[in-house]
Structure formats: C-alpha cells, structure tokens
Automatic annotation (TrEMBL):
<dbReference type="InterPro" id="IPR024775">
    <property type="entry name" value="DinB-like"/>
</dbReference>
<dbReference type="Pfam" id="PF12867">
    <property type="entry name" value="DinB_2"/>
</dbReference>
<protein>
    <recommendedName>
        <fullName>DinB-like domain-containing protein</fullName>
    </recommendedName>
</protein>
<feature type="domain" description="DinB-like">
    <location>
        <begin position="25"/>
        <end position="166"/>
    </location>
</feature>
<dbReference type="InterPro" id="IPR034660">
    <property type="entry name" value="DinB/YfiT-like"/>
</dbReference>
Length: 173
C-alpha cells in the first residue's frame, strides 16, 4: 500500500534557517546517542511493539544518514541531476517502510561501535550539514515527501533521528 505524499513544509518544525537546522541536528544526535548509551542491558532485544532492537535502530539511522550525505553533496554541487523514478513509499500496517538498502542487519550496530563507528558517522554528517544551504531548483525525490532541496533533506534527517529516538524512549518506558 502506498501513502499520499506529505507536505515538505511539515519538516519546518526542525528549524527555519540552515543554522537552526544544524543546531537541532546536533541536539538530536546528542539525545539519541545518550539514549543509546543507556540501552546496553537490552541492546540486542527487539523492543515492545517494534521489530527492531536498539542496535538495529541505531544501524538503520546510520544507514539513512550515510545514504543522504552523498545526496547533499550532489545537491550542493553544480553537477547535473539525472531524472529519477518518483516511486511513492510503501506502508505496512500503517507504518512507513524503509527502503531495503537501509534496513539493519540481524545483529544491528555492536554496542562497542558507539565509540567508533557512530562517532565517525556523526562527524561525517555534521561536516556535511555545516555546508547545507537551500538549493531552490535543485531537488531530489523522497518517497514520502516528494521533491526536497538540500535544506529540506537535512530537515528530514533531523526529523528521522528524532522519530527513532522517540520510538526508543517509548519502548524503554
């Protein structure tokens, strides 16, 4: 089942300006990381009402973010953009489904990797975010939000991190 596109303006709660969005990104990364560090006791256990463990949630967030960094680089460049298929996202039991390439592995991120892999991921993401500005006329298709420019893609990343943090917090409650 597909879902009608949401309005990209729904991402504005993250911040209006690039600076506001960058601050919110750092804040959400701090909050998610702090939460993840407190989940060592159930790191590999699927969460109530969820299919994934905290380890898998962390790996999924990293895969999404890491797939968007090159996209941001492209949108901020003057390289030509190729037309891409505009395929709406899938829903399963009312939940948006992640693209297959962003699904976590069976074990997810090893807990010990928070000090290395997660930190490297965060550095790459924040370094790219430091360059992001609006790119009117240079957009790329998002399966649930439609055409997004670079700033809206960064807003989407922040909203995605926030959503997974909140899901993890709810599962821990």
């Amino acid at each position: 089942m597909t879902q009608p596109l949401l309005d990209a303006s729904s991402l504005r709660f993250v911040g209006e300006t690039p600076g506001e969005v960058r601050v919110r990104l750092s804040t959400e990364l701090d909050r998610l990381e702090a939460h993840l560090r407190g989940r060592a006791h159930d790191w590999s256990t699927a969460q109530p009402g969820r299919e994934w463990s905290p380890a898998q949630e962390a790996e999924h967030v990293m895969k999404i973010d890491d797939s968007i960094v090159p996209l941001l680089r492209l949108l901020l460049s003057d390289k030509p953009l190729r037309p891409m298929p505009q395929i709406p996202g899938e829903l399963k039991d009312g939940k948006r489904q992640a693209p297959p390439m962003t699904l976590p592995g069976e074990d997810g991120l090893p807990f010990e990797a928070l000090d290395t892999t997660w930190a490297e991921h965060r550095t790459r993401l924040e370094e790219m975010a430091a360059r992001v500005e609006p790119t009117p006329g240079r957009t790329f298709w998002h399966q649930f939000l439609g055409e997004l420019d670079a700033l809206d893609w960064l807003r989407m990343v922040v909203a995605h991190i926030r959503a997974h943090r909140k899901l993890l917090e709810q599962s821990a409650a």
